Amino acid sequence: METKNNKNKGKGIFLFLSILSLLVLILLVISLWYLISPRLDSFHPYITIGLKLILGLSIIVVTGGLFLIVLSALTEKDFLFPHGEKQITIKVLFPINLFLGRLFGWSKDQIRESFVAVNNSLFKATRKRINPDSILILLSHCLQNYDCPQKITADYHNCRMCGKCQISQIIELRDIYSIKLAIATGGTLARKVVVEKKPTVIVAVACERDLTSGIQDVYPVPVYGILNQRPYGPCMNTRVDIGRIEKALNIILNGRA
Ligand code: SF4
Question: Which of 141, 143, 145 is the pocket-test mutation for ligand 1 (most atoms within 8 Å of CB)?
Fold first, then answer.
């Protein structure tokens, strides 16, 4: 069973790196200010005041955003008001997190996996705001049996339900819950599906890299991310814990796992 300690441990890498990145960012801004401030004196005083305001406000927005993210991710309670804090903060800090993470010996995938765990906690924290009207299950096509000739990315109804891969099980789940389903071959097609189907909430199954970029790309549509399993290596005959998809649907529809 997943204990609270284990869950927070999964989020720990991303939250720790985010706090560290913020400190690095503040240090960089202060150093930059120290370097350029003597030259600014030769300009109009309003320029100096304006720049100070912009830098100060940016730091306040990112720091405030991160504080709310950490609080919401750890407690799974909704402190993420107003909307937008999450996006700005994560967009700014994410590349620095990846860089610092490498210095600590964490791989990109470990950091992305931790990001998905943080994202899912924020998803649960804000679930009361989520409108379950239109739920989309978005799958990476590598779940399909590698030798299957059916063109399921064009239309999942082309699946013959032979049971050689988990696509048939997920279609059955779709029928039970009467939700939308799409299978995409990559980020571009996934974005196209989101534009066409206009979901209010997405349950996505993919690898660390695709989930991380997808979650950020489709913002503000909330995404619950589920990592695929890769017993045969990347992009081939991947699998997913179907129970985790059901758990996500229960969180969305009933507010509990
Ligand atoms: S269940 Fe069978 S027909 Fe459907 S995608 Fe998998 S292998 Fe192809």
Answer: 145
Residue 228 · residue 238 · CB < 8 Å: yes
Does CATH number 3.60.60 belong to domain 130-254? no
Task: Could you list the beta-strand ranges (E) of the chain.
Answer: 135-140, 180-184, 201-206, 223-227
> What is the CB neighbour count within 10 angstroms for residue 51?
15
How do residues 133-151 score in pLDDT, each as one tens digit? 899 999 999 999 999 999 9
Q: What is the pTM for the complete model shown?
A: 0.85
Strands of 223-227's sheet, edge to edge? 180-184, 135-140, 201-206, 223-227
Query: Which atom of ligand 1 is the closest one to the Cα of 145?
Result: 7
Name all residues whose Cβ lies below 6 A of ligand 1. 144-145, 148, 150, 152, 159-165, 167-168
